[in-house]
Amino acid sequence: MKDHQLPLNRIDQAAFWIISLAIILASFLLVYFPGVLGSLLREDGLFESCGALLFLLTGFILLMTSVEMYKDGKEKGSLIKWRFLMVLGAGGLFLLAFGEEISWGQRIFGFKTPEMMEEINRQGEMNLHNLDTRVFNNAVETIVLLMILIPTIWIHRGKNRLLGFLIPSYWLILSLQLVACYVTYNYVKTQDYTIYLILAYFIFTGAKSKQWNKLFYVLFAGVLIGIVGALNAHLRDVFPSNGPREFREFLYAFVCLVFSIKIYLDVKRPAWANIQV
Which of 118, 140, 152, 170 is the most exposed place for a label (fewest CB within 10 A)? Predict the structure, then answer.
């Protein structure tokens, strides 16, 4: 690992603890102050609003990153251009996610939903993701799973870059696992089993290589997932209907912001485009 990546991993470690503390706080509120948690997780509540803001910041950072990549890589071949287009497109998608989260300002400015949209939208709002929430939620869960699975495979191969970009580190993968496992546990899906298997893999490799620091992180994450899962299953009727989803989206938006900052800081280094992939 190059020396300049060490402070970037410190960012990931901090993100892991912030997400852990947020989940612990939410669990405390669920047990002792469920009404407070319900108000925080309601439509247009604190977590949904903060999540939208995090999507906005992530989009802007990725657009800034694409500008830096264009300036540094415009004379360095077609692969660099594809990287630029990928980051530019990702930035646009996060800005789209921000618009969707606030229903394109409908609840802020109070404009009426067009009649055709109102008839097919589950909440009668001016957005696309509520046309079919099942499809949208499955898409998000699949993206999170891929963001966990692909970096894990790359780490197993001894690599930390894909197409020249830093992949999510060990700690960011654990953060995503915490995010993915924050559900009501009415049922367990294929994604959940895959995430648990990856946790088991990290425990095995950490113990085998005697990397006690990393093993501590994964054991802590595993215990937290178990405790939160038991609480959320036992108290699932306390949540508002979309409460766990809103909190999970907020946590996911936070991870995306952290990862976008890492990509930006890495791209700002002049040597980034010379890394072999």
Answer: 118
